[in-house]
Every structure is written in structure tokens, then in C-alpha cells.
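Bug #77: duplicate submission created two jobs. Keeping one. Sequence:
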Amino acid sequence: MPHIDCFFGTISPYAYFSGTRPQEVADRHGASVTYRPLDMAGLFSRTGGTPLPQRHQSRQEYRLQELRRQSRKLGLPLNVKPAHWPTNPAPSSYAIIAAQKEGGDVAGLVHRICAACWAEERDIADDEVIRDCLSASGFDPALADKGLLAGAEAYGRNLEDAVNAGVFGSPFFVLDDGERFWGQDRIEDMDLHLAGKI
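Kept job's structure:
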């Protein structure tokens, strides 16, 4: 059975644009998925990425255009400058890690948390927002308060594993055959690869 490690930041707009498509691709091909939230600031500092405020103005302007275009293309509402961004991604990441151990609609939870940030003007560092996302995705909202130490350890391990696997952005998909796909706009390519077409 193929396996996909999905590395992402919960405050990444491109993780939001991924929606539940990674899981849909995995289901089509009988693959499993592990959602591995990580600290994007740490990833950038380790892999040569430039934080948004430090990018040239032309790159920042292009990013805003691209966000608007992708939002329209995918039919997903988006505030290109959310009220609660950036925010601390760790609490929402810990909740995803805890939920994954329980089993259930992790893809839906990831999408709900990202949508809370990018479409709903909610602070995903807030415990009540996290509990609401957990509950709406069919998980016990108390997971927001459980396993924090284990979540913190997994969160740190995800960053280390990402760097070692050649990850440098979000979302980033690493397959167990060594193929890597960066970005929500490469999910179709991952689908074709798993089908043996590319």
C-alpha cells in the first residue's frame, strides 16, 4: 500500500487550498496518509526560505494576486490578509496530531482549521476555535487539551523529518517511493504518479 506523508503548516494558505484533495487521491489509489503539521518558520530557517515580510515587494504583490486567483479557481472563499495571521500554529497542530491518533476524518479537520484562519477570520491559536473545529469534524473537542507533551514532541519531530526528507514548503507530499510533490497545485501530479502515468 502506498503511503503519503503530508507536511504542512496550519497557517499556510496553500494548505487551505489543498482542501481534502490529498485524502481523495489517497483513497483512489488505496494509499494511506499521515498529516504532519510543522513549524513553517523553523522549516524556512533550516531550508533557505525567506519569511514573507522579508521578501521583495514584487514577490509579496505577486503572492496576493496568486492567492486571489487560486481562491477563485478552487471556489474557496479567502481573505488574503486574515485578521489572525500570522498566529501561533502549535495549538492547532497539536490538536491534529492528537486527532490522528484517534482516527477519523483528519483531512476534514485539517481543512476546517485552515479555513477558520483563511476564510472565517478566526484565531486558530484559540482553544475554543480548535475545540469547535474538532467537534465539527467528528472528534472529541477535549482532544484540544490532551496529549500536549506528545503533540509538542511529534510537532518537533515532524520538522526534523521534513528537513531530512527534502521538504521546504507547504503543503509538501512525500511518498514512500521517494517521489516528492510541492504545493496544492501538484496534487494532480501526485494522483497521476500513483496511477503510474507520470
